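Annotated sample (chain length 348).
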Amino acid sequence: MKVNQLQRDDDGNLIMNESNIIKICNQEGLYEYPDLNTKLYLHFKGIILIKQAFKKIGGLDSFTNVKVLWLENNFITKIEGLDKLTKLTHLFLQNNLIQEIRGLDNNLELHTINLSSNSIRLIQNISHLQNLSTLEIGSNKLQRIKDIEQLQDNISINTLNLENNYLIYENDEDPLLQILVKIQDLKCVYLMNNEYIRSIVNYRKVNRSYNQKYISQLPNLTYLDTQPVVPNERRLAEAWGKGGQQGEKDEREKIKQEEMEYKQQERQRVRDTLPKNLENKIIFFQKSIEQLKNEIIELEEIKIKQINQGYGEGQIEFMDKQIEKKQLDIQELDELLQVNQILIDIIK
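Output written by the structure step:
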């Protein structure tokens, strides 16, 4: 962003107005006419200095067709000025100074919101965003579970990032899990570095398996913190949820038995198919050898004709080398044929 070309206020701060946004569009290879743009790059791209980044959102009323808006790495303190962007689907506001979620009343098409690394203390004013599928709100100042209760109204969320907050465990009923269970499409959850998680028994085991309790209660979960939820781990978690440690132990034995049976079936399949594969190879080697022998006969006939016609020694020597090469190929193929025949005899 070439900040020296953009308008500033009397204090030297950058102004987010339509004129400046159009200049940025020109620099970014976007359209000069506001309503032709479907995306806007209004994030700061260099070393952040307070007078080289935007402090307030504005000037967007004419950009009515924008779907993706990048505003991260500024000094924005308030979400505002987005009323006319009714087609907005992706909003990136991470790394700003925002303290409150508001100003999204008309942005009903939002699928993704990134508010990470701000100063937000309460999740609010998003219940109406029923298309919301991804909410990134890690590294904020969320502390009490009641501060995030509104999440349960957004049942379409499938990716939720709450890591690096200050969430605390207030009672033994695990209210966070009760909220997450109501978000039926939830697939990816990031909860690391919260005091809440460190207080939950069996959240993470020393063998790096997943939170047994959460995996067992969230049937669509495919990713928890830093690792995927694989099928066997889900089976173990669900068995633990139903039967405790003994249920998990029984399921582990069942998985082990299934894996052994699968390996045995694979070995039998290989034994059943190997003779046929070897026979096909033998047929291939035999045909290849026969073809090479015919080619040698043709080369010998050509060589005799060339001798009778008085060709030089160089040409005759070349023909000898071609014949010798094919004879070596026959020898190699014949060795492979014999090896495969021996294998068939052993199997039978």
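Annotation: Residues 204-210 have pLDDT under 50 and may be disordered.
Annotation: The CA atoms of residues 144 and 167 lie 6 Å apart.
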